[in-house]
Design brief:
793 residues; alpha/beta; seven-stranded mixed β-sheet; 7 strands
Length: 793
């Protein structure tokens, strides 16, 4: 027998092992397994288990193979048997943990890993895997602790450094994450995931240029790395390079068609580039892949000004859900929803058609209508309601009429009405009051009709309506117009008075907002909280933003009105503690009631005059003064009075009216003043609105402003007790005089991109002289306000 034959014979094994042969068979199987001959190893493990079904090592090894093949349930069964045979074998518990994690049983998986490291504290893989599982559950601090223990056991493993960096980044500690990503890359220079993660950390630290380089390196090492393409696109979009950003998002979505974030970003970028149809297509695809809060907000952004087109059929079901579920500010959806309603109903907009439209019904209940043409149809429907209520018509359209009445309450009864209609409505209100006083039955249509012209809480004995059972639509109307106002009246007594209100102009402004709280709102915007500095660095990637990290951020919101901005600010920043103040107790009571529906937010409300806040013994990381300073007798003095309340290097978010952007309002005000409209009463405001609508050829821009569509906001827009406008030159001078650093404007991507094309050398987009030139060329870009961020010294 030659040597080759002897070697072949030595490799031959019997067809089935005897119990005595098991050690030799297992050794042979283990060699196959180690050499990557998995099929041969699996066959031998199964042969062993056929004669020795309790052989723990074979149960364990075969379980690992089945797990790697994706047969997780079968693997779990084998690994449990292995553990039952040898409960002291740490790798058995560790691998069972991996299998249970693959089955989605993360808590059980973590328990297995804990057992493994208790048996063998030096088992680096078990520490690391437990960290991965904890991270999947969002328990990042515990995950980081696991990774640190893994590094004690295996300090040279790049994967563990990368995992620890990712956990620290998720905890908002990018400065601590960076060294771990760099260490991972020192161990594995082609580690694409670590390059990408390092880019994220550097971006959070304001190092945009190096972040971009890291994203590009990640792509160079892994050209099909969708996440790196998406992250690079986000940075390029922040820089204003929209076309390049769109290419990145498009590449990411082609590589990974299920990448919802890339599709969402693609949608927003297409919208900024003026491709409305492409934006809608991308965001609808993103929502079909996976609905995320970011995707829902992107949908709202993409359809905010969508015209009534053939897209209505695709938009309608999403608009309906977005309004019902509160995807973002409902008023941002009002025009698109009204456009869909008018597009679908065409000329058939009688009461029967209107009442059969669920999108219209929910629109009426959650936000003021912002469409002039639809307003006319709704006003006509209200007249039909008045007639039906007088005649005790049937209640087929009761739900729609109740929704219409809720709309009228939301818009402060802004719809125009003639004298005869007014007389009939007043008669109906008096008749309802008399019926309530004597305890007579009340027809539900009469409740809706009165509520469509007057707030029910102002009707004598209206609280008696709460003693009866009503259809659901009527109950919702009673809640809006009786229960909630009564709650706000009670809440007034609980709101602290932080300062006296002695300034004459402040008293004048307070009186306006006591009569007309601004704005009345149902739902606010949504946000995923971010650390303050991370958020600002992402918004202004080329600004030199440095600020000490803390567990929370103290924020002062002055002129908080009815609380919507305060709630949105509290939602936006991780650890936000908000003090929100306003002159008007009516507005504050509304704010407190709405905030109580969000118990997780840390918001205090108080009545105060910002001019007197210098006496409080508190300092703030952020002061938000949006839409308030321009209503002071001396706006610069009011701004100066807030600066001592700012912590060193703290931030201010400021909103001021632009003189250039409000020229159309100045012309409209002059016209209505010349014709004798004072705006002193709701009736006067309604007449002034009708006057401007009849002259839409001259004042069409005013009619497009959202504030035109309720009495309170229209009073604020056209008849404010005190308003002063600013120029960019004046703002620049104030900032220089008080050592404030301009960080940038909060503007749509499309405006930033247009500015960059005009002034490519202003990389940080912070040169107010050039912004002044840009505003002269495009005076409508600040039609809302100058909204910007500054940092103190």
């Amino acid at each position: 027998m030659n040597r080759k034959e002897r070697r072949a014979k030595s490799r031959m094994l019997p067809a089935r092992p005897s119990p005595a042969d098991v050690p030799a068979w297992f050794a042979r199987a283990a060699r196959h397994h180690a050499a990557g001959r998995v099929a041969d190893a699996e066959r031998l493990y199964r042969d062993i288990l056929a004669v020795a079904p309790r052989h723990a090592d074979s149960l364990h090894r075969l379980g690992v193979i089945l797990h790697q093949q994706g047969r997780h349930a079968a693997a779990a069964e084998l690994l449990r048997k292995a553990v039952a045979e040898n409960a002291d074998a740490a790798p058995y518990h560790a691998h069972l943990g991996l299998v249970l994690a693959a089955l989605g049983r993360l808590d059980d998986a973590i328990a297995c890993c804990r057992t493994a490291v208790a048996l063998d504290p030096g088992l680096a893989d078990a520490h690391n895997n437990m960290g991965v599982m904890l991270a999947r559950l969002g328990r990042l601090a515990e995950a980081a602790a696991c990774y640190r223990r893994a590094l004690v056991c295996a300090p040279a493993l790049a994967d563990i450094h990368n995992n620890l960096g990712s956990a620290l980044l998720g905890l908002g500690r990018p400065a601590e994450a960076v060294p771990h990503f760099r260490e991972a890359l020192a161990r594995a220079p082609d580690f694409a995931d670590a390059h990408n993660n390092l880019g994220n950390a550097l971006l959070d630290l304001g190092c945009a240029e190096e972040a971009e380089a890291r994203y590009r390196q990640a792509i160079a090492f892994a050209p099909d790395f969708a996440e790196a393409h998406n992250n690079l696109g986000g940075l390029l979009r922040a820089k204003g390079a929209l076309a390049a950003a769109m290419d990145c998002f498009g590449r990411a979505s082609r590589i990974a068609p299920g990448h919802a974030e890339a599709l969402t970003n693609l949608a927003l970028t297409r919208a900024a580039l003026g491709d409305g149809a492409g934006a809608l297509d991308a965001v609808i695809r993103a929502l079909a892949v996976r609905e995320t809060p970011e995707g829902r907000r992107a949908f709202v952004a993409c359809v905010r000004d969508a015209p009534p087109t053939a897209e209505a059929a695709r938009l309608r079901p999403l608009l309906l859900r977005a309004l019902r579920e509160g995807w973002d500010r409902p008023d941002d959806l009002a025009r698109a929803a009204a456009g869909c309603v008018r597009h679908d109903l065409g000329d058939g907009m009688d009461v029967a058609a209107l009442a059969g439209d669920p999108l219209l019904e929910v629109l009426l209940c959650v936000t003021p209508n912002l469409d002039i043409a639809l307003e006319a149809r709704l006003a006509a429907a209200r007249r039909e309601l008045l007639r039906s209520a007088r005649d005790h018509a049937d209640t087929r359209f009761l739900a729609f009429f109740c929704a219409l009445a809720r709309q009228c309450f939301l818009n402060d009864y802004v719809f125009a009405r003639d004298d005869d209609e007014d007389v009939q409505a007043q008669w109906l209100r008096d008749d309802l009051a008399a019926a309530l006083e004597r305890g007579a039955p009340v027809h539900p249509l009469r409740i809706a009709a009165v509520a469509a012209y007057f707030p029910l809480h102002a009707v004598p004995s209206a609280e008696r309506l709460l003693e009866s059972a009503w259809p659901q639509a009527v109950e919702a109307l009673l809640t809006q117009q009786i229960r909630e106002p009564a709650e706000e009246l009670r809440l007034r007594e609980s709101i602290p008075r932080l300062t006296q209100i002695e300034d004459p102009v402040s008293r004048q402004v307070r009186a306006q907002y006591e009569e007309n709280p601004y704005p009345r709102w149902i739902a606010c915007g949504t946000a995923v909280p971010e650390p303050l500095v991370t958020c600002l660095r992402r918004q202004f990637p080329f600004a030199a933003i440095e600020y000490p990290a803390d567990d929370g951020v103290d924020i002062l919101v002055v002129g908080c009105g009815t609380g919507r901005n305060a709630v949105e600010t509290a939602q936006r920043f991780t650890g936000a503690r908000v003090l929100a103040v306003d002159l008007s107790m009516t507005s504050l009571a509304h704010a407190v009631r709405k905030s109580r529906a969000r118990p997780g937010l840390a918001i205090e409300y108080a009545q105060a005059d910002l001019l007197a806040l210098g006496g409080i013994d508190r300092r703030f990381d952020v002061i938000e003064a949006v839409g308030v300073l321009h209503h002071l007798a001396d706006p610069p003095a009011g701004w100066r009075s807030l600066l001592p309340l700012l912590k060193p290097r703290g931030f201010m978010s400021v909103g001021l009216y632009s003189a250039a952007a409000r020229l159309d309002l100045a012309e409209a005000r002059a016209a209505i003043a010349e014709d004798g409209f004072s705006g002193a009463t709701p009736a006067e405001i309604r007449r002034a609105r009708r006057y401007l609508m009849e002259r839409a050829d001259r004042h069409g821009a005013v009619l497009e402003r959202p504030d035109f569509f309720t009495v309170s906001t229209c009073r604020d827009l056209l008849f404010h007790a005190r308003e002063q406008c600013f120029t960019l030159a004046g703002i620049d001078a104030f900032l220089r005089d008080h050592g404030l650093t301009f960080l940038g404007f909060s503007l749509p991507d499309a405006v930033h991109a247009a500015y960059r094309r005009r002034f490519p050398h202003d990389r940080a987009m912070s040169d107010l002289h050039q912004w002044h030139t840009f505003e002269q060329e495009c005076p409508d870009i600040f039609s809302g306000m100058y909204q910007f961020w500054v940092q103190g010294s």
